[in-house]
Every structure is written in C-alpha cells, then in structure tokens.
Specification:
elongated
Length: 157
C-alpha cells in the first residue's frame, strides 16, 4: 500500500514537472515573423480587451507621438476597416508595447509557477493530510463500536 502511494505521488509530480516545462518553453517562443500583420491585429484586439478602449481610440492615441493629423487618422482607420491595413504609427505603438501587452493579457500572477500559489497548495495538502491523520487516529476510534475496535486495533498508540 505504501509503495502504491509513493508511486502515485511520483507519477503526479512527474506530470506536473513536464507540464510546467512545456508551458515555460511555449511562453518563451517568439512570434513568427511571417505572420506580422496577423500578430499586430491580435495585439490590437488584446489592447482593446485590456484597456476597454475602442480600436479607433487606440489609433488616435498611437498617432499622438507621431503628430499625425486627425483627418489622416480617420482616413487610416477607414482603410483599416475596409482592408485591414495597419498604418505605421499603430505598428510602432504595438511593437514598443508588446512585452507589456503580453504581461497584462496573460496575467503575470496566474502562472502555475507563482510562489504564492505553491504556498497555498502546500498549505492545503498539509491541512488535508493532517485532517485525515487526525480523523483516523483520534475521531474514528471513538465512533466505531467496541467489537470492531478490538478486531482492527484502531486507535492512538
């Protein structure tokens, strides 16, 4: 029985380790350069989800650094809506903020490797195992009828 428990713990630990390694490796991969326009479109969607601004507002804010006139922004936005052509100032804005966008969108604190999450899991495991040990040693022997207690010799030492 002890061997089965140890083997189960080792197997679960191995699966968790492999999962963490694969997840870390997949996060370290850089986006493919061939899908540049698709990735910028995805980043525009991520920005709209994170900030709650419309795509037009993102165009307007990204044009502030380049001092693009308002009529040009409207023309570029209409062109974007019809042909999905992204202007240079929006591409520059997205490229400069890619790292921050990814951190905000993926949620830095929700990773399985977060130390606080490990502490929480360790606390829950100790609580569950400690509770199970307490129940089996001190509570169950007093609940069981006397003839079963004498057969199984259940109780604290």
């Amino acid at each position: 029985m002890l061997n089965l428990t140890i083997n189960t713990i080792v197997a679960v630990s191995a699966v968790i380790l492999v999962w963490c390694l694969v997840r870390g490796y997949s996060r370290s991969l850089k986006p493919n350069e061939q899908t540049d326009s698709i990735s910028i479109e995805n980043y525009l969607q991520k920005i709209t989800l994170i900030t709650g601004f419309s795509t037009y507002e993102i165009f307007r804010r990204s044009a502030e650094e380049w001092h693009v006139p308002a009529d040009r922004i409207e023309l570029d936005f209409k062109k974007y809506l019809s042909t999905l052509t992204i202007p240079y100032y929006v591409k520059d804005f997205v490229r400069r903020g890619q790292k921050h966008i990814d951190e905000l969108y993926l949620g830095k604190g929700s990773s399985f490797t977060d130390k606080r999450l490990w502490v929480c899991y360790a606390f829950l495991v100790l609580l569950l195992w400690g509770g199970a040990a307490f129940l089996s040693l001190y509570v169950f022997p007093h609940i069981l009828p006397g003839d079963i207690r004498s057969i199984w010799v259940v109780g604290p030492p």
